[in-house]
Every structure is written in C-alpha cells, then in structure tokens.
Amino acid sequence: MNAASTTSLAPKVSAGADGSNTDELLLEIWRALETLTDPEIPVVSLREMGILRDVRGDASKGYEVVITPTYSGCPAMEQIHDDVLATMQQLGHKASVVTQLAPAWTTDWMTAEAHEKLRAYGIAPPLACATSVAYANASRSKTHVLTFAKRTAAHQNIACPQCTSDNTTEISHFGSTACKALYKCLACLETFDYFKPY
User: Fold this and answer.
1) What is the Cα–Cα distance from 8 to 58, expressed in whole angstroms?
2) CATH code at 3-99
C-alpha cells in the first residue's frame, strides 16, 4: 500500500464535544467504508482503488466522507456516493459526501492489493504512470510541472492476466469502460482489459 492511499487511515486521537471517543468512531467508520467496492470492478474496495480519501468531522456535527473520482464523468461516482451515504446511515451517523477533484486521482493511488485483485479478476493492472515519474522528478527540484499532453514512454508490453505472456497487442484504446483499454494476448489468444495508467 502506498503512502498516498493511507494518509487518512490513521485518525487523530481526540474526544468529541459529547465526550465520545472520536478515534474509536473514526476507526469504526473506516472499517465499514473499507467494505465498499468499486461498482465497476467489485473485487476491489474504494480504499484499495484510492477513491476513498478522507473522513472528517465528529458524531455531534456529522461527518464528511471525501471521495475522488478516477476520472471526471465516471458513471460509477453516483453509485459510490449512494453506497457511502447508506453505510453511514446504517452506522447511525449524519454524513455528507464531498467529491474532491484536486489533487486529481492517479493510478499511483491504487494499492498493491488492488493490483493483485485486478490481475486475478482478469484485468491487467496499470504500469507505472509516466506523469507520476515526471512529478516526482519535479518535486525533488521544488518545481511542480503540470502537463496536459500525453507523455511518451519506452514501449512496454502489457502482460496477459491469464497466461502472463507479454506478447500482447492493443485492440482498442477503450475497453469495457473509458479507464480501460482492450488488449489481446497473442500467446493464449484471450482478450482482456488493461487498466490504463493516469
């Protein structure tokens, strides 16, 4: 699990205005929210995908659950919003859902568990994101570069999640959803989705 996806998983120890242990309540909320899965890929949780970003507030004033879409216009966000609210209601907490667009979601926020679960489900997980490498290099020089043009990286074949061969080819840049591309394995002849890096 990378640091970006775990920053909110360790709530601060404090007492709420009503004397309740805010730390225990936040842990209970996180445990419940971590059971929610991505509607389009039900084998991975919202936390593992990096969509579930933060929980803030307290029992007396209510909670805000922060989510970040994998890309703008993602059709699953409405379902995710409803699932989060339903979970909070089942716990008996007042809550709202905040959709946070900045910083923008990146496949770097996906956990190692998400990568393994995607592969087992038949979806090739994303390779390292070229823009994250550029951002890391820029961060070291204290300069942040925002690039809107696609960066070209050294060509890497996508490994087939069925037979692990890297003798694969892209059939369509868009697969079952806009965030995935459709590939074909030239070894086992299976088609599969590849989760594109962002």
Assistant:
1) 15
2) 3.30.300
- Indicate the length of the chain as a whole number: 198
Q: What is the mean pLDDT of residues 74-82?
A: 92
Domain-wise residue ranges, the chain:
3-99, 122-195
Higher pLDDT, 85 or 60: 85
Kindly state the tokens that stand for 120: 């087992």
* Integer angstrom CA distances of residue 105 from 36, 52, 62, 64, 133: 18, 11, 26, 19, 15
pTM of the predicted structure, to 2 decimals: 0.74
* pLDDT at residue 145, rounded to an integer: 53
DSSP per-residue codes, 87-99: HHHHHT--EEEEE
Task: For residue 94, give every residue at least 6 positions away whose Cβ sits within 8 Å of its Cβ, in sequence order, or none.
Answer: 61, 62, 63, 88
Helix (H, G, I), strand (E, B) or coil at 25: helix
pLDDT digits (tens, 9 = 90+) for 122-178: 999 998 764 544 444 444 445 555 555 444 444 578 999 999 999 999 999 988 888
Nearest to 118 by CA among 176, 186, 187, 54: 176
Task: Give Cα 146 distance to the centre of its chain.
Answer: 21
How many whole angstroms from its chain centre is CA 178?
A: 15
Distance CA 37, CA 114 (A): 11
- What separation in angstroms does the CA of 170 have from each of 25, 116, 179? 47, 21, 14
Which are the contacts of 163, defined by CB distance < 8 A and separation ≥ 6?
Answer: 185, 187, 188, 190
